[in-house]
Amino acid sequence: MRIILLGAPGAGKGTQAKLICEKYNITHLSTGDIFRMNIKNKTTLGVQAKEYIDKGQLVPDALTIQVVEDRLIKEDCKNGFLLDGFPRTVFQAEELNKFLQSTNNTLDVVLLIDVPNEFILERNVGRRICSSCGRSYHIKFNPPEKLGICDFCGDKLIQRNDDNEETVKERLTVYKNHTHPLIDYYWTNHCLSTVDGRDDILTVSKNIFSALDT
Ligand code: ADP
Ligand code: AMP
Question: Which end of the chain is more exposed for a tag (fewer CB within 10 A), N or C?
């Protein structure tokens, strides 16, 4: 299965991506996670990306597309993949289409997790992520069993640099201007399916699974 997850920042893409990839045995590709790992390891890509991410802006298309294409040719994507946070611009979507065509692949579904703006600030500001595996928690909606510790790998939970009020507002503006148009793009080009992202995590995943299984 080849899936794109669309949705505003904090809609729940990363959270649902983990559950979907586990159930369907496909590879989770999050451009945000890849950039954050590069920032942590102080690679050239990380240094370049950090400049944009900390301001809530998009990393330039050329850099981002290269990262995704390099990843999609790897063996673990042969059985299927889920793209989380990519594409984020119509140009990225067009380049992805060309790439998939060149490798004789097609998308099965583009899934939009629909969450109204008034949910976004609290979801992002209350988010904590694992410093090793990147898993998302929330201080109120999805707390870990032990305060500040990842349930899966036992490592420390941290707050993302870009999960502060000012940067979240900028990310939301960027979403509206650059990423939201993808809803129309995929509505006309591909099979777009929408789930209500206001529900609790398990209800959203139940609805996603029934959309994917039909
Ligand atoms: P995205 O990957 O779309 O930016 P995340 O999956 O990281 O979003 O979720 C953002 C925050 O909201 C996290 O703190 C997560 O635990 C929380 N969250 C995710 N889904 C829900 C939900 N359905 N209800 C409440 N909180 C949620
Ligand atoms: P995310 O983890 O998906 O919330 O992404 C965090 C940040 O990484 C975004 O705010 C962007 O700065 C950058 N980023 C992630 N994916 C992309 C993308 N497809 N295009 C451009 N920038 C991206």
Answer: C
Is 203 among the domain residues? yes
In a domain, 163, yes or no: yes
Distance CA 110, CA 61 (A): 20
**Number of structural domains in the chain:** 1
Q: How many CB atoms lie within 10 A of CB 196?
A: 12
Q: How confident is the model at residue 197 (pLDDT cuts 50, 70, 90)?
A: very high
7 C-beta closer than 6 A to ligand 2: no
Write the pLDDT tens digit of every residue in 99-137.
Answer: 999 998 999 999 999 999 999 999 999 999 999 999 999
Q: Could you tell me whether strands 109-114 and 2-6 are parallel, antiparallel, or unpaired per DSSP bridges?
A: parallel
Q: Is residue 60 part of a domain?
A: no
Question: What is the CA(52)–ligand 2 centre distance, in A?
Answer: 9
Is 2 a pocket residue for ligand 2 (Cβ < 6 Å)? Answer: no
Q: CATH number of the domain that 132 lies in?
A: 3.40.50.300
Q: Is residue 54 part of a domain?
A: no
Looking up tokens 């870009």, which residue turns up? 162
Reported as a single tens digit per residue, the pLDDT across 168-189 is 999 999 999 999 999 999 988 7
